[in-house]
Queue: 3 jobs
Job 1
Amino acid sequence: MRRRAGYQRFNVRLGQRDRVFPFHPHLVRRATPTFPSASLAFYSIMFLRRLFDVFLESLSGEEKDYTAMAMRRAIVLLSIPMIMEMGMEALFALVDTFFVSKLGVVATATVGLTETLMVPVYSIAWGLGMGITAVVARRTGRRTREGARAAAGQSLFIALVCGLVLAVPSVVFAPELLQLMGAEPEVLAVAGPYARLMFASNLIVTLLFAMNAVFRGAGNAGMALRTLALANGINIVLDPLLIFGVGPFPELGVQGAAVATTIGRTIGVIYLLYNLFRKDGFFAVSLPDLRPVREVLVGIIKISLGGIGQFLIASLSWVFLVRIVASFGTVAVGGYMVAVRIIIVALLPAWGMANAAATLVGQNLGAQQPDRAARSAWWCGHYNMVFMLAVTIFFWVASPWIVSFFDQGPEADAHAILALRVISLGYFFYGYGMVLAQALNGAGDSLTPTWLNIVCFWLIEIPLAYVLALPMGFGPMGVFASVAISESILAVLCGIIFQRGKWKTVKV
């Protein structure tokens, strides 16, 4: 006690006030240090320790009340696993592209064209997940566990139906779909078996996205992260073994990438279903919960239709962009596909922040705190904008080095570098736009972003890309510029509409 009192008197003599260390839960007395380097080291250690504690807490999977804790803390705890989850999702396409690119431009174009055809499937799965997250988050915010379990059961039912509807026709008509995308004969010969297996996995993709959305809406983003880490780990190990035929594994070439990805995602879905049905889990879903319940189904479908519309509009516009790029040859397509895979790595973590905003908005509206919901969305937008600016700088400086990992040849690499640099020019605005659009979806207002997507992507982006690339003669760069321009306009419109606040009155 005498030592503590003397320490306080020392502070008073120096005219200093006691301050609260901002990254540690306890009070830390701050006196003028005798050795500045030692003091700096102390605070650095305390800062890193606090960050590590927050990181572990965000991944713990424990139930938390995000509507009552400090807002910045809620954003950090939710966004860390969601950002990592989106990064894990990006790894699927990136790892496949990395290994397949070693087989040549034709193999890369095969993966790129197939993934392009699966973009509408991802869009439907994303949109469905958007509705699921909004409904589960709202019911979680109301503290109604029975309602959250009912929403989880109905979400699984919808995912099963949608997955089957998406898988069967695409497998049957796989060659015709590839021809519509302008696949050249040498690409079509390789892409047929690969595309059929990937299209058959549409059921798995839909289940994976839907079940992750269930846990994300309940605030347990760590579950989705662990699932994708498991699935990705399996995919990363199996990819080179099956593509190149290492050891006892057969050499399947491009087909090996499809087999590895499907196995990894299937095991991830099994893990999710186990935790969804687990008796001591948060949801503890049982088979009777899968019986259709009209009220719950209508709520999920109503929001999901808007979300599906948004992603279909955006993804179909991207399909048209790929078709325009394909008019400049397979090399241009290969370079563009590599750039898109790299961009996904940057955008999906940013989407993690946007998903955190959606969950916070939904839960706070359920807890009757609309002003807190609005503030959480704007704060997420601020953080996301800073991150996206850093990505823009990184792309401009390091794009040649990044693209060199895929080793497609100088001409294809040049297209990829140009795409990265030009498209990233719109990231300043898009950092806000993706967050505010997801915040509107989290509030249940999925119709407004849908109309905005129609205007910006179909009425602006596609015509602008065509005019710049072909009549005006800018080539692929015209396509890349249209992406940056349209996404910037979308972000500004989202900000204006979100500020008006009509989303606060939406009923879910």
Job 2
Amino acid sequence: MVERKALVRVVALFASMALLIAGNGLLWTLLSVRMELEGFSATSISAVLGIYALGFIAGSMWLDRVIHRVGHVRSFAAFAALYSACILMFPLHVSVPGWIGLRLLTGFCIAGLTLVTESWLNGRATVENRGRLLAIYMVIYYLAAACGQLLLRVGDPSQLLLFSLAGILTTLAVIPLALTRETAPEILPAPRMKMADLFRHAPLGVAAAFTTGIATSAFSGTGPIYALRIGLGPETIAFFMAVPIVASMLVQAPVGWISDRLPRQSVLAVTTLVAFIAALAVPFAGALSLWLQVGLIALHVALVSALYPLSQSITHDTLDAHHVIPASATLLLAYGIGTVIGPLAAPGAMAAFGPAGLFLFLAAVLAALVVMLFVLHRRQPAVPVEAQLHGVVAALPVGTPLVTELDPRADPEDFAALHHNLEEAEELRRRA
């Protein structure tokens, strides 16, 4: 009964999140397709796609002050209004400098919107239900992102309709939170370890998180461009991008189950190697069958999405429970840095090698991770299976460091301190 009440209290929040994620997912793919149709150069596409991550990182670090000052609902409404305005300005001012500025602003706004939703969700979480809330959050993210891709079939990417639809979804996301009777919680910045300290304790985890950021952002940004260049139309591109997202959701639980029963470093190495082989096979599969090609892409993307939860688990196996939250926040920062690099490098690879350059680039990134795993494994000895912490399903980084507080592996006392006692929370941050 208590669990049901807790879930009912976040229904409005989840509704706002779903609308927001769907609108942002549609915009991400739409911009890639539109830039290809407009004939943007590889350098221009890299700049527009890469600047988003910088805006998101900056917003994640600074916008909590705005939320403190004016409150959750007003902040959400302001960020959503600015984000919707940016969406509608994209087709009205088609230029590289203009789109770079707008993309920076959209990343900044999405960070603020995500801070509001995740801090609100954290405020409703307890020691008992945070694992379930995290799982629900991830399922909503994957399904809403997939639906956003499918909305590309509704209109012509060269026209205004799809931009308007993305703006409408973002605007509608304000309504559930604005009308909820629930009070907004206090927002507390998540503690974070120094990157150098975390790398010293868990170099494999940091390397895997950073590489995953490069690979996931490279595909999500330039995957639609690849689809256009191999001759797919907008309707087919919608399914082309949605299928890997659904596959990513489905693969999390099996990989997590396996990693709890086998040495995690071995699971990470095998997962990376299979994802590498799948990426390398994609260009050759296109000559045989489109469905085979889509299947290999879905396998590749799904396995890459499983690398981040594995990096988290490998990291937490080497630390005590008091460091789960600060270590997760730092891993998310490493992932975020990777997301800046992926969209900058992938278009250049496609310009040099044609459409196949995307998957040659992805294969090269994963090959580099395999080498790093081999080189660094002596600096981070494997933890016996019986000593491994239980893995968390679907812990793909999709938001700000605040979402790391929902990790059920964190020490219950630290979680309580972050959410219920400001003095203890400050002490926890100093300790981290």
Job 3
Amino acid sequence: MESREINRLTEQVIGCAIEVHKQLGPGLLESAYETCLEHELRLTGLNVQRQVAVPVVYREIKLDCGYRIDLPVENTVLVELKIVDEFAPVHEAQVLTYMKFAHKEIGLLINFNVTLLKHGIRRFRL
């Protein structure tokens, strides 16, 4: 996918996340934001899945350890949601690792537990 198309797609995802945050505000469980964001993304016509397994690959062995991507969008953007006071390095490491194992070059880490959502968004590119 072209860089311009990827930027447009991530902008759409962020716009949907902002809309969900405007409607719900902070303070809910991650599952509520995940369900609402999935719905909002579908309303815009985007192909989105929910809780997709990502196996850990060690050498030639695939291990099903129960890791899941919150919302892969258009089979291109990996979206990981959090409800935390602030991002920790482990949250960023998680997204980068999921991107590696899922073979996705773009990832969004979104924290809905903020007063202004733009302060809770991180974009990653491998």
